[in-house]
């Protein structure tokens, strides 16, 4: 595959795919020597029509003259076709950025690291974690040969399992109060049919996508949602500086912060929960495993089951459980906090 990147032609032997013929094949003057042997050569054939011509003669026609193929071409017509290796179908694909609908792309203003170039390639870098309902991968999106900001980035690709690979036991409690627009989908969900399971799987990806967008727009510390494509969400990769360079931020559960950082983490948690509650939403599965410690910053992840605080009959229970899960961890690390107190404080924000 070949992509245009500049102003000089690169005449190599690879097959060239030109997406715009006008660009690929500028109309040059008739003196151009690119392409088939000049017609003058044919006259030779007629003049010597008695002779037997073999393929050797044709080869001679081509190699007799040393020609600079660029001679006589106005430089403004020249294009640089930069050849890259064929993409590896197992680990690569052309960037899907332009193939998803605009509404399936992240909220604006977009961070400057988001790669939107049509020439970018997505490369699978490896699996981050396999889970019951989804797997998280690292994926690089980059314009070949570039590591400039906005042309190269590593993201997390979270891919939900479909149908029988998923567990659905929690689905009913979480989806209660959530609107499913198409009535066929609604019936299928109720019936628990195979179609229902497909719908439900899609619903989780859409649900996490919507939650990430909403939280991002509320200014909450969540990964920036880059795009949604079917069961796959691409999002910001939350990292820390490790000994060997950039690495995935640890889950809060794996860290042992000192007293000052611990107190700061708790303040960040309380602020984030208050903002969510004010917006009428509850994480629904908040724990030190779904919270990343990105240096001094806490980042909340894994939001497919975000519920309405009021619209869902279990909204309050989910909020109390979130408070309990988090407070337990903070207490175990030495910070005296109480979930009932936190819950009460949050409720004051809600109404
Ligand atoms: N945006 C992200 N940045 C860094 N790590 C992430 C990100 N999203 C997920 N992870 C890692 O992948 C794991 C699984 O992701 P999560 O969204 O919690 O899915 P699951 O439903 O499998 O729990 C997380 O615990 C975390 O280690
Ligand atoms: Mg998780």
| Secondary structural class | alpha+beta
How would you describe the shape?
Answer: elongated
**Distance between termini?**
58 Å
Number of helices: 9
| Strands side by side in the biggest sheet | 3-4-5-6-8-7
Fourth-tier CATH superfamily name of the largest domain: Phosphorylase Kinase, domain 1
Number of domains: 3
β-strand amount: 15-25%
Q: What's the helix-strand series?
A: EHHHEEEEEHHHEEEEHEEEEHH
Question: What would CATH call the class of the largest domain?
Answer: Alpha Beta
Major sheet: size, sense and barrel closure?
A: 6 strands, antiparallel
Total strands: the figure is 14
Q: Over the alpha carbons, how many angstroms does the gyration radius reach?
A: 29 Å
Which percent range fits the helix content? 25-40%
CATH domain topology of the largest domain: Phosphorylase Kinase, domain 1
- Pick out the low-confidence regions: 1-64, 164-171
Cofactors, ions and other ligands in the entry = adenosine-5'-diphosphate, magnesium ion
Mean pLDDT equals: 78
**Gross CATH architecture of the largest domain:** 2-Layer Sandwich
Catalytic activity: L-threonyl-[protein] + ATP = O-phospho-L-threonyl-[protein] + ADP + H(+); L-seryl-[protein] + ATP = O-phospho-L-seryl-[protein] + ADP + H(+)
GO molecular function, one term: protein serine/threonine kinase activity
Pfam families: RIO1
EC number: 2.7.11.1
Description:
It catalyses: L-threonyl-[protein] + ATP = O-phospho-L-threonyl-[protein] + ADP + H(+); L-seryl-[protein] + ATP = O-phospho-L-seryl-[protein] + ADP + H(+). The protein has 351 residues and is of the alpha+beta class. The strands form five sheets. Strands 3-4-5-6-8-7 form a six-stranded antiparallel beta sheet, with helices on one face. Strands 1-2 form a two-stranded antiparallel sheet. Strands 9-10 form a two-stranded antiparallel sheet. The chain contains nine helices and 14 strands. Helix 5 packs across helix 6 (194-217), helix 7 runs parallel beside helix 9 and helix 8 packs across helix 9. It has three domains: 2-83, no CATH class; 88-168 and 201-237, Phosphorylase Kinase, domain 1 (2-Layer Sandwich), CATH 3.30.200.20; 251-351, Transferase(Phosphotransferase), domain 1. The chain binds adenosine-5'-diphosphate and magnesium ion. Magnesium ion is lined by residues 289-290, 302.
